[in-house]
Amino acid sequence: MAVLKFDDVPFEQVRDGLQRKIIHLDQLMTVLLDFSDGPWEKPEPPHAHPHEQTSYIAAGEVIFYCEDEPEQHLKAGDMFFVPSGKQHCIRLLTPYARLVDSFSPIREDFL
Amino acid sequence: MAVLKFDDVPFEQVRDGLQRKIIHLDQLMTVLLDFSDGPWEKPEPPHAHPHEQTSYIAAGEVIFYCEDEPEQHLKAGDMFFVPSGKQHCIRLLTPYARLVDSFSPIREDFL
User: Chain B partners of A30 at a C-beta cutoff of 8 Å?
Assistant: First the structure.
């Protein structure tokens, strides 16, 4: 079945305050991420991966940091993208936020 | 700048009742699609493309059809995916809906 119904598929607990649900094909993965431990005083540690990434802010507000670019205050409806290998991170500004991240190739480390 | 702020970037009009905003990298594209001409009596015509697709229902409700699979009633928070080459389409059940579609490789025909 080519669907993930939110009410039918349990979250995977990533850590305290972060849960996710994943769909993927061979070269494309999309991850629904629900953060519930905001707001954060500091950003998460910057990280990078060879996978290209796009993200849609479905709820909440974050600061998005990408290498030497100016920080960006993003809210529900906004999007960001991360080229292969670029250091990036977010800081949660709201108690709760939902990000919908897509990756190509897929994040084998998430499976 | 690696962001698309919803309030700063105008929609592209696809047709009456359908607008989109696009971000993309080399192998990954994400398209915010706002439909405003629902509900539809019938589904759109089925279509297929070699690109893999994932979709997040950000608002509204749709029926999702994918080849010979049973039709799926999806609502905000649900996701679907379309393997390369599979015939698929949706039917809008609500006046308004927002889908966030991702594709790999990118839809050159959208640029």
Answer: 54, 56, 79, 81, 102
Q: Which residue of B has its CA nearest to A103?
A: B28
**Beta strand B97-104 pairing with B29-35:** antiparallel
Rounded CA separation A100/A23 (Å): 11
A102 contacts B54? CB cut-off 8 A: yes
Nearest CA-CA distance, residue A67 and chain B, Å: 10
Cβ A33 vs Cβ A99: under 8 Å: yes
User: Is 2.60.120.10 the CATH classification of the domain at A30-102?
Assistant: yes
Q: Where are the domains of chain B?
A: 12-30+50-110
For residues A82 and A95, give the distance between their C-alpha atoms in angstroms, rounded to a whole number: 24
**Taking the mean position of all CA atoms in its chain, how far away is CA B20?**
9
B residues 1-20 near A, CB within 8 Å? Answer: 1-7
pLDDT tens column, A52-111 = 999 999 999 999 999 989 999 999 999 999 999 999 999 999 999 999 999 999 999 999
Please tell me the CATH code under which domain B12-30+50-110 is placed: 2.60.120.10
CA nearest to B75 within chain A: A5
pTM of the predicted model over 0.95: yes
How many Cα neighbours within 13 Å face the side chain of B86? 19
